[in-house]
C-alpha cells in the first residue's frame, strides 16, 4: 500500500538555514531603517523644540499649567537629544 497524499508538498519551502538567513537579513535591514528614521526625526525635533520654549519663557512660568508644559517639553527635548545624537555621524 502506498502512502500517497493528495496534497502536494511543493508549497512547503526548504527547511534549511537559507530562509532563516534571509529573514535575519530583512530584520536587520528593517531595524537599520527604523533606527535611521528615528534618529533623523529625533535630531530635528531636538533642534526645533527650543523655539517652542521661547514663548513659554516669555510668558513667564508663574502659572502652574505653563510650568508643567515647559518642564514636559524640556523632558521631551532631552529625550530627543539623546535619541538623535548619533544622526549623520
UniProtKB/TrEMBL annotation:
Region annotated Disordered, chain positions: 1-29
InterPro entries: DUF8028
Compositional bias of kind Polar residues: 1-12
Keyword vocabulary terms for this entry: Membrane, Transmembrane, Transmembrane helix
Superkingdom of this protein's organism: Archaea
Transmembrane spans: 40-58, 64-84
Protein name (Swiss-Prot/TrEMBL): Uncharacterized protein
Amino acid at each position: 500500500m502506498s502512502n500517497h497524499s493528495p496534497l502536494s508538498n511543493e508549497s512547503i519551502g526548504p527547511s534549511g538555514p537559507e530562509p532563516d538567513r534571509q529573514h535575519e537579513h530583512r530584520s536587520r535591514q528593517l531595524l537599520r531603517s527604523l533606527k535611521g528614521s528615528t534618529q533623523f526625526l529625533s535630531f530635528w525635533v531636538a533642534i526645533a523644540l527650543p523655539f517652542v520654549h521661547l514663548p513659554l519663557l516669555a510668558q513667564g512660568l508663574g502659572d502652574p499649567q505653563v510650568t508643567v508644559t515647559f518642564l514636559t517639553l524640556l523632558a521631551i527635548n532631552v529625550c530627543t537629544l539623546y535619541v538623535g545624537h548619533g544622526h549623520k555621524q
